[in-house]
Automatic annotation (TrEMBL):
It comes from the Bacteria. Pfam families: RHH_4. Residues 16-80 form the Ribbon-helix-helix domain. This is Putative DNA-binding ribbon-helix-helix protein. InterPro entries: RHH_dom (IPR027373), RHH_sf (IPR038268). It comes from Oharaeibacter diazotrophicus. Coiled coil: none annotated. GO terms for molecular function: DNA binding.
């Protein structure tokens, strides 16, 4: 087996915290950078902000799962499932036209 990590930008593994307002309440969500990249592409494809996308996913999860959910886990799972369904285009390299 090859060295998988050598093939990827290691910054994508770094955790990033972002503050998002959900239902009028500010919250902080900590995810690996690669998940934020996927969420940004999903939000852009839907024509909404990341805050709106996260709010919608949180509301759907609470309804579907009958109560409190671990939002970071929901977001990671959605990203993985969406990648499996239809992988988004890779991010453009700096300087690409």
């Amino acid at each position: 087996m090859g060295r998988y990590l050598d093939e990827h930008d290691l910054h994508r593994f770094a955790k990033e915290s972002r503050s998002i307002r959900i239902a009028g309440h500010a919250t902080s969500i900590r995810l690996e950078a690669v998940f934020w990249e996927i969420l940004e592409r999903l939000a852009a494809a839907e024509g909404v902000s990341i805050a709106k996308l996260v709010t919608t996913l949180q509301e759907e999860a609470v309804e579907a799962l009958d109560g409190a959910v671990n939002l970071a886990s929901v977001l990671r799972t959605v990203c993985v499932l969406r990648q499996r369904e239809r992988p988004p285009a890779p991010p453009e390299s700096p300087g690409a036209s």
